Amino acid sequence: MTREQILSLPQPLRWVVQVVAPTGQHRPVRPAGALVDTQFVHCVPCGVESAATRHGDALRCAEGHTVPAGGVS
Predict the structure, then answer these.
(1) Under a CB-based contact definition with an 8 Å cutoff, are residues 71 and 58 in contact?
(2) Maximum distance among all alpha carbons in the chain?
(3) Helix H segments across 1-73?
């Protein structure tokens, strides 16, 4: 099925079909209107997996800690 065919299905059926053949809409590279890229990283000072924003080559966790590009500090 093509993306257009999947999106034209009734909602309950579309949910089922998207599990088998995802349309790719649920995880865009950068959502429209986003100012920076984000990714999940493990922040050692916080001790948790956290969403981080990318600022050039630097990643900052939600609390502001700088995290190396590999995601482990």
Answers:
(1) no
(2) 47
(3) 3-7, 11-20
- Give the C-alpha separation, 20 to 32, whole Å: 26
Q: Which residues contact 41 (CB under 8 A, 6 or more apart)?
A: 49, 50, 52, 59, 61, 67, 71, 72
Residues 72 and 50: their CA atoms lie apart, in Å, by 11
Query: Which pLDDT tens digits describe the chain residue by residue (73 residues)?
Result: 677 787 788 888 887 877 776 555 555 556 666 677 788 888 888 888 888 888 777 888 888 888 876 555 4
Question: Which residues share a beta bridge with 43?
Answer: 48
**Six token digits for residue 30:** 């950068």
Which amino acid appears at position 14 of this protein? R
